[in-house]
Amino acid sequence: MSKHEFTIDDLKRILHTSAGVPEGVGPGADILDVAFDSLGYESLALLETCGSIEREFGISLDDDAMGITDTPRTLLRLVNEQLVAPSTT
């Protein structure tokens, strides 16, 4: 399924499904600029989350770019850049 925009609500849903809900982070919490490790998500949880994003949104996330994705805001930016990138097929 392809969508035009990846939102913070999409990310929260996929994070919670893939890696669970971290303790102390409520559904309305502003997490955009909080580091994933500070939220309780380690690298394995992020790999699972990114795999789910790739499958659901029909994109491929570059491993090098993922290395610099440390907050929800940077992941949102990366995914949305892929969603608007011209198709090579």
Automatic annotation (TrEMBL):
Q: Name one Pfam family in it.
A: PP-binding
Xref: InterPro entries: ACP-like_sf, PP-bd_ACP, Ppantetheine_attach_site
What keywords are annotated for this sequence in UniProt? Phosphopantetheine, Phosphoprotein
What are the Carrier domain coordinates in residue numbering?
5-83
By what name is this protein known? Acyl carrier protein
